[in-house]
Amino acid sequence: MEQGEGSVMVAQGGLLEPPAIVGWSKALGELHRRIGHRFCRSEARERVKRYLLGLLGRVERKNGWRMAEAMGEHDPQGVQRLLNAAKWDADEVRDDLRGYVLEHLADEVRGVLIVEETGFLKKGEKSVGVARQYTGTAGDTVNCQG
What we know:
α1 crosses α2. The protein has helices spanning 19-36, 42-56, 64-70, 77-84, 90-105; strands spanning 10-12, 15-17, 120-121, 130-135, 140-145.
């Protein structure tokens, strides 16, 4: 199989994969190892890995149902249990993720990382979390779901 420049394929578990996919897979594994120990039960540790993959994936609207489907689950109960009932410390996971981001994106000379939570613009007030608030999406204070 001949590949174009910059698309050398790498054998991974019997499959040929582009180097970028292999790199992302290794990075995801590293990230999971960093935060996985924060989850007490093995089921939660495994589910959080699939959840991370869903967050980074092409799921357009990342709600409970769509995330569950992306994770190969039949309904959102497992996702909801992970986020609401599993034993883990959100502050420690946040700190672990912050450390990971700093290690991989920080550049003391040139780097500035600005994270803005983008809200979804809403015309009505029926959806959960809709309120008048500033959002960079509109560049103004409008009804949005944050």
